[in-house]
Amino acid sequence: MRPLLTPDSAAVCHLPSAVVVVIRLCFWFACYWAIIGVVWRPPLTSVVLVALFLVLLVAIEWVSRRLTAKKTPLPKAETVQQQMARTTTAEGLDRLEGTFWAEFQADAMTTTVHIPFCPAFERVPNVQVFPVDESDTNLRIVSAKPFGMRVDVRRNNLTIDRLCFAVVAEGVGE
Predict the structure, then answer these.
(1) Whether residue 90 is found in the same domain as residue 166
(2) Distance (Å, rounded) from C-alpha 172 to C-alpha 54?
(3) Residues of the chain by 3-state class (helix, strand, coil), percent to 5
(4) Is residue 76 part of a domain?
(5) Among residues 103, 74, 72, which one has the least CA distance to residue 4?
(6) Residue numbers of the chain with a pLDDT score lower than 70
(7) Which among 73, 76, 81 is positioned nearest to 98, based on CA atoms?
(8) Structure confidence by residue, pLDDT tens digits, 74-121
(9) CB of 138 within 8 A of CB of 151?
(10) CA-CA distance, 70 to 81, in Å (whole number)?
């Protein structure tokens, strides 16, 4: 299992300025005709035109904001601490798969990672942990509960600052 995020997985949506200009021109054209309609039409038609103008105004502004909005970029892989996906197997069991990163303090040889299960399983699930890369580390499940688990990560040399490991939990969900 490899990490789900990569350093280049961020995406930003840019809209050409010509599209924005066309949307703004449509807005002002609608304003112009709504005002002319209010001034030169009988009262009932004026009410209908004002209502139509307001609906058009809201629709154009919504489309304009939607098209010109920039998508929020995804976080870089160096800052991600956990990533989980929960699915249902063909047998009807809930399966949680995740990638987690353990960060070590400067002189510490061990660190503990807490992994929540939300929603919780009905009973304690079957859990497995394993390193994603071939680093010189030991992973040990300290405790597993229906609502989460705790993993102790031990590095055997001080050159490792951050370790990526995978978790698979399978059991009956709520």
Answers:
(1) yes
(2) 52
(3) 30, 35, 35
(4) no
(5) 74
(6) 1-27, 29-50, 52, 64, 67-79, 173-174
(7) 81
(8) 556 566 778 889 998 888 889 999 988 888 888 889 999 999 998 899
(9) no
(10) 25
Please tell me whether residue 132 adopts helix, strand or coil conformation: coil
**What's the total number of domains in the chain?**
2
**pTM for this entry:** 0.53
Residues written for the chain: 174
Tell whether 6 is covered by a domain: no
Are 14 and 70 spatial neighbours (Cβ–Cβ below 8 Å)? yes
Looking at the chain, the number of H-run helices and the number of E-run strands are: 2, 7
Q: Are residues 125 and 152 in the same domain?
A: yes
Q: CA-to-CA distance for 48 and 53, rounded, in angstroms?
A: 8
User: Whole-angstrom Cα distance, residue 129 to residue 153?
Assistant: 10
CATH number of the domain enclosing 137: 2.60.40.2080
